[in-house]
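Hey, resending since the last one bounced:
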Amino acid sequence: MSEPSRTWGLIGDSQATGLVAPLRDLFEKRGFVLDGYRGEVGWSTARFAATRDAEDVVRGRPAFVLVVLGGNDMPTMALQEKMGIVVSQLRSVEPPPRIIWVGPAHSSVPETQDRKRAVDVFQRAASSRLGFDWIDGGAMTADIPHSQDGIHFSATGSREWARRLDSHIFGTRLLPADAPSRIAAIVGTLSVAGMLGWLGWMIWRK
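The structure tokens again:
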């Protein structure tokens, strides 16, 4: 059996470009190396769906992929279709990576905030239908100060968001999935040791 991948990928919009460096450093401390990345300022889910970029990001068969998209989306029925295309592209390799979709960040611009929260509704529905993990990016960033545009964050703000994502992902999602393989390895080691001990005892009795 091949060893499980210790790499990860990231696709997204301008928020992803701000997160990639701090996330790379944090995840490396967890033992996961960034293998595929595509971040494009101003891109929507539909724009990614129209390309093969998502497939390129998973070409190295990462353990998981972070999708930071939605800030440039419109809350329409077409959004779920485009999300489905992106998810299918990310699952185009074997074994398919775990997909963790991070919803659009909080905005202090009222009309932008309203649109993003409406996008959340479609993303939640898609996560249930398509079977990927979804993180409420709006709630996670509600108290992080924005840059002057009221949409993006400073380098300090992006590092704080990355820290929260790291804590959430490895605290509630990836570690439980990784634990069984570690437990199996421990149990296997103990079983071998126990068998050797039993054989030694049987020889000693003779």
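Residues 7-172 form a domain with the Rossmann fold fold (CATH 3.40.50.1110).

Sorry for the duplicate.
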